[in-house]
Amino acid sequence: MASRLVDASAARETRVAVGIDVGGTFTDLAALHDDGRVATTKVLSVPDDRARGVLHALETAGLDGTRLAHIAHGTTVVTNLLLERRGARVVACATAGFTDLLELRRQERAALYDLSRHHVDPLVEHADVIGVDERITPDGVLTSLSPASIETVVEAVVARMPDTVAITLLHAYADASHEQRLAEALRAAIAERGASIDVITSHAVLPEIREYERMATTVAEAYARPAVRRYLAGLTTRLADAGFPAPRVMTSAGGTLSADDAAQHAASLALSGPAGGVTGAAAIARTLGVLRALTIDIGGTSADVGLIDDGEPLVERGGGVAGIPIALPRVLVDAVAAGGGSLAWLDEGGALRAGPASAGASPGPAAYGRGGVQATVTDAHVVLGTIAAGTWSGGVQISRERAEAAVAALATPLGVSVARAAEAIIATADATMARALRRVSVERGVDPRGLPLIAFGGGGPLHACGLADQLGMTQVIVPPHAGVLSAVGLALAPERREGLVSCVTLASQWQDADMATLLDHAARALAAGALHLVPRWSLRARYVGQGYELDVPVQPGDSVRAVAERFMARHAQRAGFTLERDVEFISARTTLSSAPWPVRFARNAERRADLPPDVDDGGVLDRTLRGAAVVRLPDATMQVRPGWTARALPMGGWMMERDR
């Protein structure tokens, strides 16, 4: 405990918080100084050694490791493992009779009306799912886990010698005794053989109802943990050798964990990188007094869409990553393969497509002159002049001649001019991103027409007006440091721990004291050694008979009746109706957070002297631009389309509004 408090005190005495976002094309760094200055750096990523890209960014920024409060890191390690299926070999243990759970899923089709679509294969081979002769029901133990059953499972696991073991037994969220006994026996047997194999239990990963989601999430944790541990251990060592502190790692829910804690919560890192962007956008929104907004982060490889609600990123439970359900809290992000590096191509029917394949950092778009020859969205912008040729951040040299040659290879079979082909490439990418924006807004009952669009990433300000036109939106916010806003969000994100306790009970049968005791015990267990973190609680609640829940904020002093009424009000707001049924509480989540790192967005005149003469940071000059216009920002490009007007904001950045 003392060491944690000393560390927190030391952090307050240091001067700089650093965020590093490792993307598929660029690695972005933001250094938030305690005097309000924000310094940014952008370098090309190193796909085969991401840690080298991190170190390169720190060296390029010229930072002194002894003056850093922390380094917050967003990583795509877990996402890439799931996409590329390069994780650990897992053996899963499930209650006998339930070993087909991962294949059966919820017995729904991948697409209701497309019989050719199929779910992705489970992360565990069916032959590596071992049945356990035991059974716990909601009412208690039906079949005890005998020593003979334990021995049978241990022998089967040891014979397979996997990288990790995932244990998911029925109703372990309510009674974890069988999982605990089996895990202890497996760990002892593995240790006897001198092996090093993680044994992961579902009650430690997700102690909540729904067997399929609990098993899938536990398996995902087992699948990703070894690689995450290796990556973070290697990164920490290389940072220490260079004189820098160990990194904090952004979780999918928008907070950060120490590297040691993050290595034990691999599944919670599945959307580590995109969460930083929405966190940064939320800080911009609060500064401007905006409570609700859509966000779009267009990078080199993908476009990530999010929603800000009540000044904070919207956090949801569950969702899939690369087709794998991970039922943990995460910032709402809908990622589509429509970044600047997305490759343009013609399908078998001769139709133009953009993505999902990407040129990435190597070889990159053809315009970069690094070996790429196939046209990308970036090349299309270079052809049209919306991205200027010449030297850009990260040492990138952009050639218009190379871009035109790449786009011409598509224009010829299409029978159109190079400029027309470039326009079509951009329109194709815009259509993909507009669908993602509709998914996070219209499909959730949110009318995008009354919301601003916060556009960032290297390509966000380029596409923003076109996307807003498609959705009927009239206002676009281009934040300061737009091209590296994800790194800014990482740097200011709070330290955060989360814990979950199952509490399936009816509101009518729960006493106020019981609820208060549960919340207090959950916070105490989570706060060990972290007294500087502030607790917040929420209860998952539903009407009896419903198949989904809503999160309701709660405090230890609240009455059960008040919390139930709060749920009913939220249900009416979200669904438009209430039911004459009892309210049922499913689980209690405790979140411990530090205060966000202070940041003061302001005009940054000092940077102006270091920028090329054609670059504008949008916060130095008080001026208004009417479309059509193109503004080169320090780390992005902003396009003001005809019918739109842009004005520089006092905080830096720009506000674009559609002409009435």
Instruction: Please tally the helical runs, counting DSSP H or I stretches of 4 or more residues.
Output: 18
Uncertain runs: 1-12, 604-613
Strand content: 25-35%
Radius of gyration: 26 Å
> What is the rounded distance between the termini?
59 Å
* Count of individual beta strands: 35
Question: What's the architecture of the domain at 2-81 and 244-269, going by CATH?
Answer: 2-Layer Sandwich
CATH superfamily of the domain at 2-81 and 244-269: ATPase, nucleotide binding domain
Shape: globular
CATH class of the domain at 2-81 and 244-269: Alpha Beta
CATH topology of the domain at 2-81 and 244-269: Nucleotidyltransferase, domain 5
Percent helix range = 25-40%
The class by helix and strand makeup works out as alpha+beta
Main beta-sheet annotation? 9 strands, mixed
> What is the residue-mean pLDDT, rounded to a whole number?
88
